[in-house]
Amino acid sequence: MHPFQHRQHAHCESGVTANLLQHNGISISEPMAFGIGAGIFFGHLPFVKVNGIPGTTFRIWPGYIFKRVTQRLGIKIETRKFSKPEQAMKALDQALAQNIPVGMIAGVYYLDYLPDAFRFHFNAHNLVVYGKQGEQYLVSDPVLSEPSVIGYDALADARFAKGFPEPKGKMYLVRQVPEQVDFTKAIKDGIRQTCFFMSSPPVPWFGVNAISLLARRIEQYPHKFTPRQCSLYLGNIIRMQEEIGTGGGGFRFLYAAFLQEASLYTNHQQLGKLSERYTAIGDQWRNFAYSAARICKARNTDLVSYNELSRQLLDIGEKEKKFFRDLKQVKW
Are 37 and 20 in contact (CB under 8 A)? Predict the structure, then answer.
């Protein structure tokens, strides 16, 4: 097996997925992994509080992308969780002794190779450990430009970080790849599932309906909460959108890149046109984050109202609803 090659990507799980599959001889880009894995999503859960703040997500739940990409390409994998750090670290060492790179989920706060400003309590970060030198583990963190190293204790703490969600030492690796993979079918299946997740949930907290739900709640923030609470709530939305992995706008750009690549792969021009539309929606998400950040920082110039912020988000929600309706109607 050739040495593991670190490649920087936009988002942690899709980046890890692409790097692990490329190491095992599957030529796949990060956008392709993200799209086949149905990574794009939106959810707002006012009843699920993280540090007292309602949860908002711009991507599918952790672990889903790797699981669905490998399933759709016929790749055999192994996934394990552990009850004790000692067991998890022993299993990691055993895989590394066989020169098998290992993907895992970790708590960002304990990853001491990251700058202090990036270390906060977020327990769904993906990375690859691909070797060991003495007591130091070799880390390929796809959001960084260069490989890193981490000690035993720090890595064990990261793998068993407390809080929601708990990683529980989760590790995953590739066991066997087929001689040939069918990207065309995988692309179609990934798009169909994305359209279902975004357009079909019967509850208001998931998919395109959740964008409108959040917009209406933002309009009520100044009437229900103190200025400090409003800033915390908005700040968390921005953090989930622009700092956690790729971010909401970034995820939209990543999915647009997938559609562009898929259009070339399947010779389907309509996917290319939809890619352009979703790139424009990504731009709107970035403008929303900019406006929300100005409110959080109480900037007096170009300051928008909560009502205007709500209208921006309602417009985004309507455009996403139409986009996924049209994507669902693509004729193969």
Answer: no
Instruction: Convert the pLDDT of each residue in 302-321 to its tens digit.
Output: 578 899 999 999 999 999 99
118: number of Cβ within 10 Å: 15
**Cα-based angle 112, 114, 118 (whole degrees, multiple of 5):** 115
| 185 neighbors 197 (Cβ within 8 angstroms) | no
pTM of the model: 0.92
Average confidence (pLDDT) over 246-259: 79
Structure tokens at 187: 């692309």
For residue range 110-130, list pLDDT tens digits in order: 999 998 877 878 888 999 999
In CATH terms, 12-176 corresponds, of 3.10.450.50, 3.40.630.30, 3.40.50.150, 3.90.70.10, to 3.90.70.10
Q: How far is it, in rounded angstroms, from Cα 174 to Cα 176?
A: 6
Helix or strand or coil: residue 315?
helix
> 326 exposed, middle or buried (CB, 10 Å; 0-12, 13-18, 19+)?
middle
